[in-house]
Specification:
The protein is an alpha/beta fold. It has a single domain, classed as 3-Layer(aba) Sandwich (Rossmann fold), CATH 3.40.50. It has 6 helices and 10 strands. Helix 1 runs parallel beside helix 6 and helix 4 packs across helix 5. The protein is globular and about 35 Å long.
């Protein structure tokens, strides 16, 4: 039984995340953690754009915010987002892979907290951030999903995962959304 979903993406991932959030069933109960690269100076507009059609609430968490079911948590611009079983912690430590938020750091902490109860997803992106973190999800027996590189707007991030290990699933956009929407 899965308890959380961790999604990482960069260039080209906004559209699929937006479509996923608007396709969820109304009673969707899992928390979704979103670590998406964006410009560090853009503080407003991203969460609002995702919220327009989203079925579940989308928020940028505050430090030490309690994790609630059926809510999407978007890593704030220029903050690392650490996930523990009950709270989200924010940090301004040095960038990792030139990124803050670092997808790898979010995946490492979510994997350590949820282990086999976590679903990790890597989407379109233009760098390797997230590949090592998703591999960690796999090592701790969580379910791993990579967006089909041919279906990704920018294939570097999904390809980095596939070069590092064999995920449980490689899905195109529609397969990924259908899979997540059917989770109970």
């Amino acid at each position: 039984m899965y308890k959380a979903i961790m999604i990482g993406g960069s260039a080209g991932s906004f559209q699929i995340v937006n479509k996923l959030l608007s396709s969820l069933p109304e009673n969707f109960h899992l928390p979704i953690f979103l670590c998406l690269h964006r410009l560090k100076h853009v503080r407003k507009g991203f969460v609002e754009a995702l919220s327009i059609k989203a079925i579940i609430p989308v928020v940028e968490p505050t430090d030490k915010e309690l994790i609630m079911p059926g809510k999407a948590y978007l890593a704030p611009a220029n903050y690392h987002m650490y996930i523990d079983k009950t709270r989200i912690l924010l940090s301004t430590e040095e960038p990792v892979h030139h990124s803050r938020p670092s997808i790898d750091l979010s995946f490492y902490t979510a994997a350590a907290s949820y282990k086999e109860e976590l679903i990790g997803v890597i989407l379109s992106g233009a760098n390797h951030d997230g590949a090592n973190g998703l591999e960690r999800v796999s090592e701790l027996k969580g379910l791993t999903i990579v967006q089909e590189p041919k279906n990704a707007e920018v294939s570097v991030m999904p390809e980095a995962c596939l070069q590092l290990f064999h995920p449980d699933h490689v899905f195109n956009q529609d397969e990924l959304i259908n899979f997540i929407c059917k989770l109970k």
